[in-house]
Amino acid sequence: MGKVRLTAAERSDQLVSAAISAFSASGYAATTTDDIARLANVSQPYVIRLFGTKRRLFVAGIERAASRIEQTFRDAGTDLDSLGAAYDRLLAERELLAMLLQGYAASSDPEIGAVVRDRFGRIYLLIRELTGAEAEDVQRFLATGMLLTVLGALQVAGPGAVPAEPWMTELIGSIPGFVDDRQS
Known about the structure:
Domain HTH tetR-type: 9-69
Order of helices and strands: HHHHHHHHH
Radius of gyration: 18 Å
Protein name: TetR/AcrR family transcriptional regulator
DNA-binding region: 32-51
CATH topology: Tetracycline Repressor, domain 2
Keywords: DNA-binding, Transcription, Transcription regulation
């Protein structure tokens, strides 16, 4: 039986998934298109043919991660508590959220920075639109989400978290509505 041939769109989707895995682990600067090609089981020239540059592939990963958050929020409900519970579930998607963290870290690149700022702004405006919450409430919501994302990247919170140290328990316990997986 021969190999199953993927369409260009399917292969592109596969490459973005591989890119998210690679970039979330190693960051923008340390990841090569060859690393991504190996993960996707394609040639490095094929990666360049589909995306042109590593930067465009990185941006595609940012776009996918942000779109996933936006769709999760749209599906969640119309109050901050519902969106918060939905984001707690997203913490299990470590690579996706780590991709966003890598995007923030690479924002000094003008093209990457423009996309990351745009997508962060879109998430902010979506939260305002869905919930009708005031700017200060959305700011607290985003700050809590960022803290949870960082704690997840550190493996302090979320699925697969490391054994708790006193500072972790104290910090996590101060997050309204967050349930530490180790306690459930």
